[in-house]
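Case study B.
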Amino acid sequence: MELAREDVERAARLAAIALDEEEVERFRRDLSSMVTYFDRLLSLDLDDVPPMAHASAGIAPTRSDEVQPGLPVEKAVANAPQSDGPFFVVPRIIE
Amino acid sequence: MARSDWEAVIGLEVHAQLLTDSKIFCGCSTAFGAPPNSQTCPVCLGLPGSLPVLNERVVEFGVRLGLALNCTIREHSVFARKNYFYPDLPKGYQISQHELPLCENGHLVIDTPEGEKKVGIIRAHLEEDAGKNLHDPEGGPSRVDLNRAGVPLMEIVSAPDIRSSDEAVEYLKNLRSILVYIGVNDGNLEEGSLRCDANVSVRKRGETGFRTRVEIKNLNSFRFLKQAIDFEIERQIRVWEEGGQVVQETRLFDAQAGVTRSMRSKEEAQDYRYFPEPDLPPLRVDEALVARVRESLPELPREKQARFVREYQLSAYDASVLVADKAVADYYEQAVAAYGKNPKTVANWVINEVLRLIKENPEGIRATRAEPERLAALLRLLDEGRINAGSAKAILEEVHRTGEEPEAVMRARGLEQVSDVGVIEEAVARVIAANPAELEKYRAGKKAVFGFFMGQVMRELKGQGDPKLVSEALRRALDS
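Model:
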């Protein structure tokens, strides 16, 4: 299936990434070939095959409910583009 | 068109924080009220290269809740990424369950004026909580605290079976009671460890399909839930009747104004692009775990209610009041055991007196110092005729505050009932001698004056005369 430029632009918007004209066209071609591959999978009769949710055949390992030390506050906020004391700071998000 | 031509269709989505010590996918503490960002690590901060590992207690709690809500527990359930951008969500996705949730197809029974009603539970699934955004009312940038990010939640989605705000409140009360009984949640709506959103639509009676629904957020008390739903039902009926269209949107309840308000609708429809979480293989819950959890389930509120009706001959209503809070139910049973008889009397005292004394106390029944044994001792004083009902209430109030023995309070305050017939007869004689005119009237046939004499004698005895003995002595004296 061939994707339209609008499909790529919408995906970019949802992923919050900016693409220039040339990138939109390149991703349109690349994504189209991927979607075409899924079209082939969809054409198979898989009614009797249980869905596979994960590539590993394993089962989720678990841990016991024990508190472990985390990061000191200074380290937790160290890589933030902006911080204020113990807080992460972001552009205002409500009116 | 009349209001009664419409009916409401309501479903509730409840998020319950699970009472684990550590977060769902990392070892950070879940303690409430810690300094900002003091309970974080690379996993819950969403730092590159970190991987989630599931907390086994979360699974156990999930199964416990599923069983308590009569759900099917899925042997294989799958975690999925729910993708969206918001500053309180460090990874840019929330790990949740989507297509294959842990619990499905359950129900919860509520009482309605028309009798018992089953409300379906479509699903209950595990997920992680987001952090907390803080906004300065003066303006300026927002601040983010990620202590709550990664705290385990169970989202419980009801079927659209609820038909009124009262049923919605009843559903939430019952659900909350179950959550607290089975020990997976603290039931605290105000602090947000239990959160409720309501999906509300209306339709004309007889219609089978659904009309457009609205999601109301932020309903952090039973009262707000009721107010918000009532407001929304009236608003939607008005819109339809005026020929308009209800818009599918999210609305916030403004508690101060008592109205729901539209939240700015996003330009683009939500598209969460769910896909299976590649960092977590499927969760397997084997039959042995389900059996073990089923075994450990405590008696649930409705089972307890039925037992109270059966075992103690209480009315369904009294039983429901007592079982709503497990601590109250335990208190009641201890008091019955200590008293050793007449469970109905004990129920009346607990419901009418003890619960009144602790009404506004956030600690509930734990706040009273009138322990079950003390209540039983008080009731025995009453049985023995040593105090009357009025004194008993006054004594209970003091025992509730101080934890003193009822008998000691009775003595200290001189509330012991006068049952000495000689003392009562003396008082009767004094009153009759002091009121010759009333005696005349009584003997002339005006029997209503008896009440006057009764009051005077009781006053003479400072309210502590045994009413039965006083009445008998008075009758003997007046009719002789």
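Residues 222-241 of chain B form the longest helix (20 residues). The remaining cases will be described in the next quarterly update.
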